[in-house]
């Protein structure tokens, strides 16, 4: 009798462990049967967009030299601090690139150091970043990040994250109020030079349009899926190019009719070929 109970308990533990592993796998790779994009397809899209747009100069300062990909070289890619990058990305939420840049410049002009920001009245911070939209919410998030940093680390600096693992960085950044997956991924890719693939509105729309994710996909699951499917060495350039293309092209996103793009209607969007002529089934699923 006792032997039977013991075996039953052991079986229940194994089943529980198996279910836990399955849930974790589903979380990390939510569309396991969706086989797009393939590595070759990612490379082809990168090459097509590079030929069309060239590499976006706004991201050039963050680009790692492909001839020197060591960790030592990564740390010298850009002078921007991790904290600067985090606040810049926070200010870019729900606004245009031009407005977010103006907001960051205005903030640094009004408060030259982060110590000045944390000591300032919230209304003063709001006024400094008002041109970026959602000033009250964003000012509160910035104050919270700085206050938490002072409490936890005793100084206003995030450079210690350069020595953390990706999972540790994600956990630390996500603990700050108002910092979501896209912001975390941007800091990972741009400021910490990790192989990550942020999914903003432009990337998300294009991914759905060309069938890289199922029609039912949301942004968070799209982030998980694309980070699994896209080769690490292509992530940075491909992400920057998709973002740039999404801003300029009216043809390859669901909101194309309202987009004020710079690509002429006479020029065929190269990404449409990947939607129409895919070697996979129309759904991209394994058959």
UniProtKB/TrEMBL annotation:
Q: Where is this region: Disordered?
A: 1-40
A GO MF term: hydrolase activity
**InterPro entries, per database record:** DNA_glycosylase (IPR011257), HhH-GPD_domain (IPR003265), HhH_base_excis_C (IPR023170)
Domain annotation HhH-GPD: ranges: 91-248
Per UniProt, the ranges with Basic residues bias are 1-22
Coiled-coil annotated spans:
none
Q: Where is the composition biased (Basic and acidic residues)?
A: 23-40
What UniProt keywords apply to this chain's record, in alphabetical order? Endonuclease, Hydrolase, Nuclease
Q: Name one GO biological process term.
A: base-excision repair
The superkingdom listed in its UniProt entry is Eukaryota
Q: Which SUPFAM superfamilies match?
A: DNA-glycosylase
Q: What is this protein called?
A: Putative Endonuclease III
- Organism this protein belongs to: Tripterygium wilfordii (Thunder God vine)
State the organism's lineage: Eukaryota, Viridiplantae, Streptophyta, Embryophyta, Tracheophyta
């Amino acid at each position: 009798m006792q032997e039977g109970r013991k075996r039953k308990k052991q079986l229940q533990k194994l089943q529980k462990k198996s279910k836990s592993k399955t849930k974790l796998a589903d979380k990390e790779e939510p569309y396991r049967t969706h086989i797009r994009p393939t590595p070759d397809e990612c490379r082809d899209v990168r090459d097509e967009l590079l030929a069309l747009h060239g590499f976006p100069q706004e991201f050039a300062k963050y680009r790692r030299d492909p001839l020197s990909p060591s960790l030592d070289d990564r740390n010298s890619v850009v002078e921007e601090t991790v904290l600067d990058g985090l606040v810049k990305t926070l200010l870019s939420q729900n606004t245009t690139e031009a407005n977010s840049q103006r907001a960051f410049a205005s903030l640094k002009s009004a408060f030259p150091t982060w110590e000045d920001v944390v000591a300032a009245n919230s209304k003063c911070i709001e006024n400094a970043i008002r041109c970026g939209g959602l000033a009250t919410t964003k000012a509160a998030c910035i104050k919270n990040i700085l206050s938490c940093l002072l409490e936890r680390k005793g100084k206003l600096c995030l450079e210690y994250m350069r020595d953390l693992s990706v999972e540790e960085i994600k956990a630390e950044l996500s603990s700050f109020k108002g910092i979501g997956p896209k912001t975390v991924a941007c800091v990972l890719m741009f400021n910490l030079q990790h192989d990550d693939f942020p999914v903003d509105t432009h990337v998300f729309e294009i991914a759905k349009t060309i069938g890289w994710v199922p029609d039912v996909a949301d942004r968070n699951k799209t982030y998980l899926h694309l980070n699994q499917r896209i080769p690490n060495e292509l992530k940075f350039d491909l992400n920057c190019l998709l973002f740039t293309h999404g801003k300029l092209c009216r043809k390859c996103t669901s909101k194309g009719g309202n987009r004020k793009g710079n690509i002429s209607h006479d020029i065929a969007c190269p990404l449409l070929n990947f939607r129409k002529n895919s070697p996979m089934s129309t759904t991209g699923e394994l058959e």
